[in-house]
Design goal:
about 220 residues; 9 helices
């Protein structure tokens, strides 16, 4: 399983590095989202700084949709979907590889977005351990849930429009918990983030289990 996961993740990441879709599309999109929020709230600088955690995670969640769609779009071309089914790779390994590649891209994006909110919103970053743990757990949840729902919409012609409708309501707990945990970290009150980190960990674990056991049947039905 782990060997197959490494194989799939490496393949997806090499495709992204060579195509530069993340650099040319996903990163600019997320930065534009932050800039638009800055323009909308700039007259009230205090509100902008207060809303920075929520705006950060809205940008991450929206960008995750692009990364997930891209992850399955490369498999939908030229009959690759059937090749993936007949590859003999462990379905759990396929899930871990797909989710791992998405998570790696999102973590890199989040590092740049943290610098973005610091510059654009004047946000002072504190409690770096809590910030890092929040990013890790939230990213695992986003990647796991996104991969599960991505494979559900895999074989449909309307997957580009269906995927956001499936995923965004499900990701509401991640958005809420990650925002509250970030608020606690930026307020230098890490103890207030413990319960929210627990929620993020539970969400990530839930979709890890769903993906490990359900990815194969979902792929066959897509």
């Amino acid at each position: 399983m782990w060997a197959d996961a490494g194989l799939v993740a490496g393949k997806d990441l090499r495709i992204e590095v060579r195509s530069r879709v993340g650099v040319n599309q996903v990163l600019p999109f997320s930065l534009v989202v932050l800039v638009l929020f800055a323009f909308a709230l700039d007259p009230d600088r205090g509100a902008l700084e207060q809303a920075a955690p929520g705006l950060f995670w809205v940008a991450v969640v929206l960008s995750s949709l692009l990364a997930i769609q891209r992850s399955f779009a490369v498999e939908a071309a030229d009959g690759n979907r059937d090749s993936l089914r007949m590859s003999g790779l462990d379905p759990a390994g396929l899930f871990l590889g797909k989710a791992g590649a998405v998570a790696a891209q999102l973590l890199g994006l989040e590092v740049l977005l943290l610098a973005g909110i610091s510059v654009l919103y004047g946000t002072a970053l504190r409690s770096f351990g809590v910030l890092a743990l929040t990013c890790l757990l939230a990213t695992l949840g986003l990647a796991g849930a996104g991969t599960v729902y991505g494979v559900m919409a895999f074989g449909l012609r309307v997957r580009e429009t269906l995927l956001p409708l499936l995923v965004l309501p499900v990701l509401a707990p991640v958005l809420l918990a990650a925002t509250r945990s970030f608020e606690a970290a930026l307020a230098d009150a890490p103890q207030e983030a413990v319960s929210w980190l627990g929620l993020l960990a539970a969400f990530a674990a839930l979709y890890a289990v769903v993906g490990l056991f359900g990815f194969g049947p979902l792929l066959e039905e897509s």
